[in-house]
Amino acid sequence: MSKEFVKEITAQSEDFSQWYLDVILKAGLVDYSPVKGCMVIKPYGYAIWEQIQNILGQMIKDTGHDNMYFPLFIPESLLQKEVEHVEGFAPEVAWVTQGGQNELGERLAIRPTSETIVCAMLADWIQSHRDLPVLLNQWANVVRWEKSTRPFLRTTEFLWQEGHTAHANYREAEDEALLMLDTYTDFVQRYLAIPVIKGQKSEKEKFAGALQTYSIEALMKDGKALQAGTSHNLGQHFAKVFNIQYSNAQGVLEYVWQTSWGVSTRLIGGLIMAHGDDRGLKLPPEIAPIQVIIVPILANNSKEVLQTANNLAQQLQQAGIRVQLDDRDQYRPGWKFNEWEMKGVPLRIEIGPKDLEKNQLVLVRRDTGNKTVAQLTTASSQVQELLIKIQTNIYRQAQEFVTSHTFIAKNITELKQILDNQTGYVQAMWCENQECELQVKEQTRATIRNIPFNQQPVSESCICCGKPTRTMVYFARAY
Ligand SMILES: [Zn+2]
User: How far is CA 3 from the centre of its chain?
Assistant: First the structure.
């Protein structure tokens, strides 16, 4: 392996898409697999996913949901029950037709999502209003047969969590869908330091079989948008098809109202593309598997330096900081600096013989490159303060990027000009007619990301047909 590998990544400005692939490979997040369109998530990449699972998983539990697990296979007859749903997913479903030597009597779909199999069970489990609400979540893998793939963003098999709930009435289902959208917003902004736009998907872009789909959208550094999470109010569509009924307080049978919601390993792609730079990943401390890397500068009195570095690592660990000591002796400090920068570790501690004499250490921030000197005795409190500052700064940088990459268009010509010369979100008015949405997409390759809850009209007429409207949307080219 070349010791210079960390220098060999493409610049973002040169080719963003190649930069992305270079970074995920060289930071050790994933590797390509022998299966087309599928990735191997390596330990460092999986550690980020585990952080997401731990933090978001707790937030999902704290809002009253229990984890459980449904089968990977869905009988064809179940998947086909809800017409819109099956039409939406049919082109990308993988089928099992044989078990061992025997051809199966009924094909089994490998779940592209679990609504249908969850509904089949809910029909059994729910009888009375006392059984409601049902609040479930599962962490699982799903398969969607994709034509073109990209690690973390679009792979044939990916990991996610999917929530499934059932309620007594529309209001409760709607509140639930919005609560989970808020939970995602909170998680993505607070922990991943990615600012998002909350809103409703257009009819065309909503989930197959849903009444309404809500999304959070994030902006990547190449100016393309990424759908970071979705929450669906499924209404009673599935309940009617799967006959999920409960007797209300008056003993009358009613259909339940349902939601489903999910985020996936896409979030890791978002994390990379929202914050990364030409030196590699830049992880916010709240989500970073390693928050602090200690690199000892070893010379003649290396034993003492190592001893001190070890003590320091223990001290930081006891203070609840995720810290690692890089005491590998086959690499020079400069090489290690580059590697940990590539891996996006928020804070580096350098400690050498001269520091030892003065009882001090050097702290280097990944987000700014700034160096500060700290006293050994007060290291953990200084590190904690810095980690908070780094988290805030990374969010602020991302927010500034969104602000400086949000434009306004009053007609399609303006929209085209903006998209061809700059990149980012474009705020525009839309008459809510699907014809106009399709025309804009055809002419500009931009889609409606969502209809934001925070409505700020930018003109009085539809960007496409010119009809009067009060609905503002975000257009962008998207992943
Ligand atoms: Zn229109």
Answer: 32
